[in-house]
Design goal:
mainly alpha
Length: 117
């Protein structure tokens, strides 16, 4: 084998090695970029979640706490919407049986699954 052929073979092997290294580092860079994107998206989601806490889902105003029949509910000062946590409506209805009359009884039955058509 001539020296010229050995040099060409050596050059080809070095080119193949460089190409494999380039592929390896390109793949590693893609993986790192994907991880960074996921971390940034998670951070943005957490920031948005924090900004939305205790805000009115309808108009975005900051909710104020209000006590109604010994239950603390959140009220929007802008649109006057009331926002209840799980179980609070049932607790309010139990405390106000007499004062709500027919509407209270209908609402209690509706919440209990005895919905009228």
């Amino acid at each position: 084998m001539a020296d010229d052929e050995k040099d060409r073979l050596g050059d080809k092997l070095r080119d193949v090695e460089r190409a494999r290294e380039d592929l390896y580092f390109a793949e590693r860079d893609r993986e790192l970029i994907a991880k960074l994107r996921q971390a940034k998206e998670k951070e943005q989601e957490e920031t948005l979640k924090e900004l939305a806490k205790r805000r009115c889902p309808k108009c975005g105003e900051r909710l104020l706490e209000r006590t109604l029949h010994q239950v603390t509910v959140e009220e929007c000062p802008s649109c006057q919407g009331l926002w209840l946590d799980h179980g609070e409506l049932e607790h309010i209805l139990e405390r106000s049986k007499e004062s709500l009359g027919y509407f209270g009884e209908w609402l209690r039955r509706w919440l209990g699954g005895e919905r009228d058509s």
